[in-house]
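Holo model, zinc ion. Inputs:
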Amino acid sequence: MLKIALTCDDAPWSASLGGNAFREGVMDGIRQQLLRCGVGRCVAFVNSEVAMGQEPQLERWLEAGFELGNHTHDHRTASESRPEHFLDSVERCDRMLQSLGAFDDGRTRWFRFPKLDRGPDAQTRRLLKRGCEDLGYRIAHASTDFFDHHFEARYVSALEVGDEVLATHIARRYRRVATESLSATRIAMRAVHGVEFISVPYFHFGAVSLRTTGAIFDQLTKTDVAWCDLEEAMGHPVFTAFDANFDVGGVVPRPAHMSLPVRVGRRVGRLSHQLGWFRQARLGPRFPYL
Ligand SMILES: [Zn+2]
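Output:
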């Protein structure tokens, strides 16, 4: 059986993924689909700057029995902002979540770093982690990227020009990538750690998610899946070990010894990503993993 603790980032909608015209009601729509599919638990990580004026959507999320977590006020990453600005952004989001009663009844205060970026160096990372913990937060890790952020801009562009055939094609490709990503990380975790673990996927509140969430989770619930809360997942030794040494570079640690071709390949891959040579927006849906 695969246990899943589901999380969704950039509530109530992802301002960084683009596409202004298709944002209204994204959170409500995804909530309804999760409920219909019987997904009992999900933590939505909120950007309070975007959420201002959208509080009723967040309240309906809580009323449905789901949780809210902190994803900063403005979604600037830990490497992009100064530590004091970053922690101020965490506090601003915290004020909104508290006013909504997100942490009432002893609910865990979850924090997720924007883009999972914990800071540019070990000292900053320690400082930010301590700052979040001082506000009562626990860091919410993720194990599985659904990669919707690679499809969102293309999907929205297709909708904007009214190309329904292309939009359907992109949504179908995304759906396949999301489910394959879930199985791939499950296999990788088994291979690396030798244990079955609780999968913690993340996706974003965006148009392509709104289109596909129902189908993805309908498909998953037909397999042997159990939904659990983030608390149970984060208590797993794989995640606690990762948190104890978060400089390892990911939940699946880097192998200690990599051959030269592998090292060169990784370096080129990182560089090409930084320079934007192979962005999904340029290449289109034929290269779903980039
Ligand atoms: Zn985010």
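The pocket of zinc ion is lined by residues 9-10, 71, 75, 114-115 (CB under 6 Å). Residues 248-256, 278-290 have pLDDT under 50 and may be disordered.
Archived with the compound record.
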